[in-house]
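User: Predict the complex with magnesium ion.
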Amino acid sequence: MKQIIIHVDMDAFFASVEIRDDPALKGKPLIIGSLPRERGVVATCSYEARRYGVRSGMNIKEAYRRCPQGVYMHPNIDKYRAVSRQLHEIWNVYATASEAVALDEAYLDVTEKAGDLAGARKIAHCIKKRTLEKLGLTCSVGVAYSKTAAKIASEEKKPDGYYEIPTAEDFVSLIADRDVRVLYTVGQMTAEKLRGAGIRTVRDIQNNTETVINLLGKQGGWIANIARGIDDRKVKPYKPENAKSISREVTFQQDVEDFGLLKDVLILLAFCVEKRARRYGLHGHGVTLKLTYADMKGITRSRAKDSAEDAATIYREAAALLDSVEQSPVRLVGVGVYNLSKEVNRQMDLFAFIDGEAGSPEEEFQTLLAALQEKYHLDFAAHLEEIYHAETLHKTVEYMRKHT
Ligand SMILES: [Mg+2]
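Assistant: Here is the predicted structure with magnesium ion placed in the model:
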């Protein structure tokens, strides 16, 4: 085998961690995500909940309709992050390159360490055993000649599964008669387009390559290859500087019409983005504003900026973008920086500073916080570090919404 790739995927990760830590939850339909009275979706649910038709990504109201007897919980993201670090530590030992694709999921290149399929099988079972022994959690593992095949293999026998797809021929015979959605690069929208042209199964893609390419362009060519089992992609270790952007967003429990409040929220989001970027030593060279309106229409606006690394600048740019968009009720607001690099491009700001056009960004940010403090009677400066955490950010923003 030219490449031997393992895909590891935890089973119902968030739910499994909660059940491990509170045995009283065992055997119950557990749904992690929003609470039924809130807005939002299911993040993960236990296999018991899946029996009622609850799925990840499902609207929480729909989940509740299907499973009113379920136990509903907010995610403890910080806890899952800590477990995630432990997981990747266990897995990485077996690979020459590993690519974390989610908190609970990774591709491992085991070509060298395994030598052959039998070696890979051994590694896969070690991974399952060690993960269970060390962390008390089960995972599913796929071994294959490509990333796509490894991912599909890990899904095949879930939960606590193992499956192998040694060759492209094995891959094709396994999935040929399945719905096109089995190819995880085919999303809902793409699948609709394909169905519109009478293409329902992977075999249909194989037999209608030209139609697929006409319909989907470059993406069509890629999908046609995948459908034949052709995928030479390498396992690419994650490097923060390869990330295209860093962003944070919040969804409000009720739509927000007050754009003054939105602007105030931008200050907190800008802080979170700055902190995240600094953690990786990255500098943004552009700012993005993202909005979802009450009717679910989403927009993003962005502008380039020589240096977008401090919260005050990120906020100022995002606020200017907010001034330029349609003012109707908003459901979600997000801020990001893009065009990331390890280099600083401070020159322009330095000139502005010397000319006395700008105070230091730090001062400017403190001024913004002081204004927030006055308006909402909350000591933002003292709680900034906590606000960085998703749960606290969300609570703070909801508090602000209720106090305007
Ligand atoms: Mg998973």
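The first strand starts at residue 5 and ends at 10.
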